[in-house]
Structure formats: structure tokens, C-alpha cells
Prior knowledge:
This protein is an alpha+beta fold. Strand 6 and strand 7 form a beta hairpin. The protein is globular, with a radius of gyration of 20 Å.
Amino acid sequence: MKPLLNTLYINQDTAYLSLDGENIIVLHDKEVLARFPLHNFEQITTFGYTGASPALMKKCVENNIALNFMTPSGRFMARVIGSINGNVLLRKEQYRRADDLQRSLDLAKSFIVGKIYNTKWVLERTKRDHPLRVQFETLEAAIQQISQYLKSVLEVNDLDELRGIEGKAAVAYFGIFDDLILNQKDKFFFTERNRRPPLDNMNCLLSFIYALLRNDICSALEGVGLDPYVGFLHRDRPGRTSLALDMMEEFRAILADRVALTIINRKQVKENHFIKKENGAVIMTDEGRKIILEAWHNHKEEMIIHPYLEEKVKWGLVPHVQSMLLARFLRGDIDGYPPFMWK
């Protein structure tokens, strides 16, 4: 099992990244703000428009360190990576399966089974832990509805039908999502999912954490030799990391949503960490990003028992485990891809 190396997050949106020997240098107006050894990281993610030196990008490529460029609000812009690991036979099998709609459907079902199961588990966990603070009957009704959609996934015959069921399950889940926000209800509320731009604090927070999750999954897929741009549920579109979006489905509720809810309910992030612009878009402050990034990293360090491997792993390694299992399935080493279904 690979060690969970750190991601270096550059939160200051005016910072410029440079190279000095084996170190990454963070500059602002030619003043050195920080210096870090490159070998400590598997990813560098910067939130801003200033950029990085060609020398640093070259060094990252040579050392297989992913360099992600994001807007200050967390929208993905570009990614610098080295050679994809693994062998060409694995990637060719990925492409052949992606071109076959029926074989794509088989894998897409696994991703959606994982997604719906985990959304149900998040609701079950809330019902168990906070029975006096939630609308018990409403929550139970949503759980039963989602359970029916979970059974329906196994019976679908094409990708469009599968997307329809996934969409209905998402409506049921997000229809109850506001009840999972237990504190700061006047400032953090959820009525519907909106993005590009997010129009409220909750959607701004979710979009930001989803972007972090997608970066982690891209790195995990690349690490086992898979192409993150060629998916099975999400079809090909220039610039879209379709396979990463496929695998994200398993983790949105169980990982990203839970982190968002935790930092709100614990009052780690507050109203003053968000700014509403004149056009209605909501962005977060530098301090808000710092708090969220710290919470995200800390959660990734927590240990769990992987439900398929039955071994202790850190949360941050789960996308790497799932990527490994997907690669093993495509190579024919196991009979099916086991989605991550948290217990």
C-alpha cells in the first residue's frame, strides 16, 4: 500500500510558485513567503491566477507530482502531470470497454450502486446519531425511497435509464439535505444544488470540496495507470475527467458532504468566511479556504476498515484503493468492480 503523501495547498491567490533546487518557493511580489521540499508531496494545488515557473512545472513532471491550478473559488482550470503509470494494455482495455455501451453500463451500475448506498448510509447515520434534532418520519421516508431506487439500479438496461434513476435518488437525497444542517441554519441552508456560480454559502462549500475530491481521484487513477478522462457513466467530452467523475459518485455523500456538514455543525466555518458578490455569486475568503483545507486534510488522515479489503486504511487512501480495484477488474484479475460501500 502506498503511503498517504501530503498535498500542498497554496491558498493565497496572488502567490507565484517557483523552484529553488529541490524546493518549491512561494512568492508574493518577489518576496519569499514559504519554502517546502518537493519530495514531501504527491500533489500541489494552487488557488489563484498568478501561476508557476516553467522550471517548477518541469520538475513536477519529472517527479510525478501533480500540479493543479484552481480559481480562488475552487473551479478547476488546468493540471500538469507526468507520464501515466502502468502499461498500455490496461489503458487499451479501458478504452475498449468505454466504447462498448453494454460493458460501460455494467461498470456504471457499480458506481451508482455505491453512490446511492452511501447517500442512504449518510441519512441512516444522521437518524441514528441525532434522533431528536431531525424530522424522523421525513428522514425515514427519504431512506425508504432511496432504498427502492437502489434496487432499481440492478434492473436497468441502458445508460440513460441508469442516469434517470440516479437523478431521482439525488432529488430524494438533496430534498432532505437541509435537515442534516443542525447548526447555523440561518446562514447555511440548502434549497437546491446550484453551481457556476454557487448562489449560497452551502453550495459554495460543496463545490469547493467536490473540486478537492476530483483532484484526489484524478491522482489516484493516474497512479494505477488509468486515464481519468475516459469514463463509463460520464461520456467523453473535451477537457472533462469523465472517469474521475464516475468514481466521485461513490464518494460525494460519504466523504465530501460529510466533511461539509461536519465543519458547519461544529461551527468551524462561519458566515464571515463567505462573500456574496453583486451578481449573486458566493465566494469564500482566504481564511475560509484555509479552514476547509485543514479539515479536509485531517479527515483524510482518519483510519477506517475498508469494507472490501477488510484492512485498516486512511480515508485519503480509499480513492487509491478503489482505483487499484478498478484496474484489477479491467485486467481480469477479479470478476467485478466492488464499489466502495461504507458500513
